Amino acid sequence: MNDTRIPLAGVIGSPVAHSRSPLVHGHWLRTYGIAGHYIPLHVEPGQLEEVVRSLPKMGFVGANITIPHKEQIMEIADQVTDRATLIGAANTLIFRADGSILADNTDGYGFITNLHQSAPNWDPAAGSAVVFGAGGASRAVIASLLEAGVPEILLSNRTRERADQFRSEFGSRIQVVDWVQVGNVIEQAALLVNTTSLGMVGKPRLRVPLDGLRSSTVVTDLVYTPLKTEMLQWAEDIGCTTVDGLGMLLHQAVPGFERWFGKRPEVDAATREAALA
Predict the structure, then answer these.
(1) Which positions are catalytic?
(2) For position 143, what pLDDT does the model report?
């Protein structure tokens, strides 16, 4: 790409109209006075490779990848980062000058950075983390928690087989707890994380008993619609430090924006307002 072309980026998904990423990146482009554009791109799975390969020719410098393409894109990219390989999915693409495609995953970075910003007193070494869910988001969360130095992760999923698979992949610091028993181990948690869609608008409630929750536990929910889930409300009511899921969405966008547009953006109150517009 030469200097006369306006850099383009976007988010690729199916569906994609609901994505808040264009609001976030559009806010940063305006804030920093950057001549660029970030647009939603609805792409069906069967068209993914054809579309992605054509984007650099049209002036795109990169893209975000969302459901259902985060695993398929790994097979299309010319190079995949170690952290994307570990997580088994990619959410960020960088298009190089020669047209080759680098796939990365910034979800774990977004999660851990949001946690540190919103709960600055959280110490990874303070104790166990209890994690609900064994889907794609959970993989990113677990990888980032292990890297941060959390000594033990108590993992529970409605389908135990998925959780057992995570233990075989991530190692002995993962302990699997049956879904019907997870309420009994919450009192051990220094950190409690919901990575499932339970509690999201339009989804079933998260029906895990939280009676054992201690006020010293940091509680975070990846769901951000609603911004304050029932779990976060319960935790807040007993004095826990709570962290909503919107911050993860914002922080995971930072590395991509910096690579594409040459400016490292700040996640601040104005960014949150833009995402919620």
Answers:
(1) 70
(2) 96
